[in-house]
Queue: 2 jobs
Job 1
Amino acid sequence: MSAVVSAAAPRSSRAPRGVGLLILAIAASILAYALQGLGLHGEVPKDLAVNGVLFAAAATAGWLAIRRLAAPADPALYPVAVLLGGLGLAMLFRLMDERGRTDIARDQAVWLVIGLAVFIATLWLIRDIRQLDAFTYTIGLAGIVLLLLPIVPRIGYEINGARLWVNLGFVQFQPAEIGRILIVIFLASYLSQRQELLAAGVGRFGLPRIKDLGPLLLAWGASLAVLLLERDVGASLLLFGVFVVMLWVATGRFAYLLLGIVLFAIGAYIGWLALAHIQERVVIWFHALDPKNVNGIGYQLAQGWFAFASGGMVGTGFGQGSPTLIPYVGSDFILAAFGEELGMIGVASLLLCYLVLIGRGLRIGIERRDAFGKLLAVGLTTVIGLQVFTIVGGVLRLIPLTGVPLRLVSYGGTSRVASFVILALLVRASAGARVPTRKAT
Amino acid sequence: MDRQIRRLGFAFVALFAILFAQVAYVQVFASGRIAADPANAARQIRAEYSVERGQILAADERTVLAKSIPNPDQSSIYKFLRMYPGGSLYGQLTG
């Protein structure tokens, strides 16, 4: 009912909430940057003022864009993303400084600014989320092309066993990051048009009829193709997971969820049989700490595990731990670095930030009146939520490790930009959901 | 659809609750045991050199056999160095 009250209030009354959160997010990020310098070298970084002003300016630009282009939108989404991005950058500077590669952290700062520019551009270009509903199959096709682009010889290539990179000569990126968003838009569009059809048919035992299973089996096949051809476990899992969740939400049929889980189990088994590195992941998951593995194949997971344990409740403090013992600490294992230096309190804070993003995203889904908007918000939020759970659960040894970026925080240019596209779409969906309410009163 | 979205929200809360439980286990309840693993030697040595240990004095209570001094290299991960002013003279005792 509070929505009715706030809808009657003047427009400007919404501004202060967002401003406070934004200032907090910027201040916390700059403080983190100062602290990592103090911890590493006993003095604040020399470029603290310059970097601080640049960061604050970039973050404020994005916020002003929301005020101008999507004023009624949820005020919490953007500041939370700024906080995650800022803390991630501070940690990347701290890690790369110790390795003598601050240039890598600086690149990520540039990517953050590019991400913010893309965020503003997306808000500017897409004035109503329903614009995207008009190109169902074009967007779906583009998404699949981007997803499978790394398979193409000559332009696609692999790093660390997974073939998910594309080099177009002038730029290298992971097309699946963008393709994933397009596929969610396609699914939202497709499912919102077919939801009655897919929900209506009831076959034997309350299961969907065989002919209604087409889309589910197609998505399953596509996920398996990504898994077997690109050997990218994370992308495959995410693709199928998001599809099943959206199908379930669209139809309200629990049977789809159950079938999805069964198909997932079959797919995981096929992957396990076909790919040696999946078998190795499972072995490492169970036996990382065995004496024969702890300095071998289990080294990364073990060092991450020790980093968390050494951090304890409050951590060693920024710059005071040894997270650089962990291979690839800036990408997959960045949470372990937070765990060591900021402790359980730091890790829990980061996870709560993600939970806020997820909660707000799902609330947009409920606030939207149109099926397309609902499904889009749910799909994009599920991408964030599943991805965070996959990598955090992997690093914490709850599930086998799957290398996906910790959105907004960890190393990864394409992921950073894609995260801001997702954020822009959620902000746009949120603004659109709140405008009609205001007109109605 | 709204009912499913709410349930999805509960599902995510449940998933994150599992993560929180595991974080609490690794970082608080079992942290001492895990951090004491022999394979975590690099961090243990660092922790040892991060505290200022006391001096070892001879029976005359003036002669310093061993003491800790702050590491002149500020950027080193070892904050203190162990000094043995008598060199190898008292090595049999100080080890």
Job 2
Amino acid sequence: MFEFLRDSLALADVELRKLRRDPAELATRAIQPTLWLLVFGNVFGHLRAIPSGSLSYLAFLAPGILAQSVLFIAIFYGISVIWERDLGILQKLLVSPAPRAALVFGKALSAGVRGVSQALIIYALAYFMGVELRFEAYAIAGVLASVILGAAVFSTFSLAVACIVKTRERFMGIGQVLTMPLFFASNAIYPLSVMPDWLRAVAVANPLTYQVDALRALMVVGGESAFGLGVDFGVQALVLAALVVLAARLYPNIVR
Amino acid sequence: MCHESAIGREPVSPVPSPRPNAFSDTAPAAVRAVGLTRRFGDFEAVHALALEVPVGSIFGLLGPNGAGKTTTIKMLTTMLAPTAGQAAVAGFDVVRQAVAVRRRIGYVSQMLSADGALTGAENLMLFARLYDIPAAERAARVAGALSFMGLEAARDELVRHFSGGMIRRLEIAQSMMHRPAVLFLDEPTIGLDPAARHAVWQHLRELRERFATTIVMTTHDMEEADALCETIAIMHRGATVVMGAPADLKRRIGGDATLEDVFLHFAGAGDDGAGFRDILQTRRTAKRLG
């Protein structure tokens, strides 16, 4: 277990160095959430079309958009493993004694780091748009944990898909197909209560729903968790553990 | 997590804790393979391969594109499970004792695989960590590896600004961080200019001198095989057709045969069994090396 964590951290550390060297990537990632909050948030806020309880629609939406932007980064993260295979980097990692699960979890943590950078951007955006944010230390810590966990879940899922499809072209196709259903079949932009039964059933099985639920309680003043934070974090942690085991088994396939 | 991590990591010590389990009791060999076979669907990439590489030697695996060299290396480095047969590297079975094998081997792939977005030192440090080199020793090990490969000046430079020859030397340093017993190189000088090629050869020779490393390499460069290898095996359509010292093989053909003549004699002239994927790979590497 110790070596698993140590090797995972070594790989995430490398990713963090690369990110610090190329912050331009982060700037382009800010565009999409800005549009969602500024355009979609404002328009639907004025329409009052979506019931958001005691929260303003913008305050309801902000955690959803944070979860969405983390999802969009994470769901395409698997392509990095295809790149690394084509460059020969992955082969060297597979020949090293690092546990396969550590190679997978290292990637998951790296995606988490990128997710945290999104949180900074969305906090700034939401703040300037007048959303009342929670700045207590434990709330911030909870948001960071939730963002890292959510990024880890979807990047590991993405990694498993990459190990199965093996080529960039097929992977991009599948990534596009997955993103929107995951996003719309969740409570990111409307509450579970307005969904038809079939959609609600899908949303309750969607890990993104639990991430949004936790973020909504921890990020904005007056926000509440529908499932309870214990359930939110527990479900995501279980899904992550299962996905890491699955992806670690699939990992060697990609160099075949 | 996965079954391999459960085995745990024994420290690299003179007395390895998992018992070496080579399936023969003859003299110790760095690599020993018997009946090694790999099929992909109907295609048999490697067929009943037998190999024996003495400890401390430089061994060359030659053959045209698609002969099964890379597949063989993948099996010996635990990346690919054999369909049939057995292989032991540094005394450990590549399937049942894969983690013990990984701890004792280094691998340099055909592609230029150092990470371009990291510096020379960072590339080495990552592998020092993954190979369990104690924290107190890592910095010295990285500095030593850089100076051994003549890369001190490029220590903090991003690898994407390196020349092809520098990248290759860095990768050899990377694969030697943990002082492996056996170093595998897949086409180590493909696409390099003559000066860089000779520098790599020189470094490989020095490496063997200094650490008694067994070197197993694939190549289809006859000059390289002649300059470096004590023993070569020529592969054709997944099997070794001949094995021996380059000089002996040349003598067998007679006259003033070159190694190229030996190659053509055994692997067949005018038969290009090159797989398309192989060619693409070679070309891509050549392009990156520019």
